[in-house]
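=== RUN LOG ===
request id: a7f3
mode: sequence -> structure
chains: 1
length: 334
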Amino acid sequence: MEVRAYREASRFTELQALWNQLLRRAPVNRIFYTWEWQNTWWDAYKPGELWILVCRDEGAVRGIAPLFISESERGRAVQIIGCVDVTDYLDFIVDEGYMDAVYEAFAGYLWEHRAVFDLLDFCNIPFDSPTRKLLPAMLSDRGFETVVEQQEVCPVIELPESWSGYLSLLDKKQRHEVRRKMRRLQGSDQSIDWYIVNGGHDLEEEVGQFVRLMAASDPEKERFLQDDKNLRFFHAVVPLLQERGWLQLSFLTIGEERAASYINFVYDNRVMVYNSGHAHQDFADLSPGIVLLAYNIRHAIEQGFTHYDFLRGDEAYKYRMGGRNTAVMNIRAS
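=== RESULT ===
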């Protein structure tokens, strides 16, 4: 196994053709690991020096560690591209048939080049990832002091085959609440509709409406959108994911007004709830956000998806709607 470091952003173009091919052979595949997400994130933020490690076996790419080096309170830290705020899962991309050899190669390379950094800080690693299972021990064996800790949770629903089966997952009180809110909205004297943005819509207009709702729904979200880098990333990644067929932007309308919206990602048999926006002041009595979420969950079941992933954060509504915790981990070594 041979490991080579790529330090110029132009190398993304060189790696594009093989990146997602390798990802499809990896044991854990998330949209955040794709070339599209990683390249767009780097182009928007560029928080340090690029350091993509590529592992080859007789010329064939068997692993990619998409890393960068930045200044932190503890010195020069190596992180995974995407860490930490706008990306929910991160990982090394490793061919499932070569995991032990590739992780050994990466661990050895990091040890040999430890003079260029002070800390390895790998965030948002899924608990079931081989990176969490294999890499820490290999780093420790080479002399690193390594710590693995739970960083956060991602509540996930394992979807049943039917809407009635989903409702049975909820406790009695919440099951009643979901049905009551759906009936109340549907019984309103105003016209009610919901839709998923497709090729027949003006995507730029729909994204603008989503941003308006997102900013109106929460002061923290409004502050997030006031950061030019965040807004640039958002406006770059959304149309790209729509082009790939990985975006699900949905709206619920009351009368002529958009009352709630969700941006979800649909990828590898999983629906992921990335962000939302609601017109709380105008339609709070009709709970448009929860009703649209219920519509989206029902649609996911009808489409045959197996997981409905609320991504990082332990907000109460995720558990009320049936989410069960999965862990994301942080690996630190120095």
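=== NOTES ===
The chain has a mean pLDDT of 96.
The first strand starts at residue 2 and ends at 6.
=== END ===
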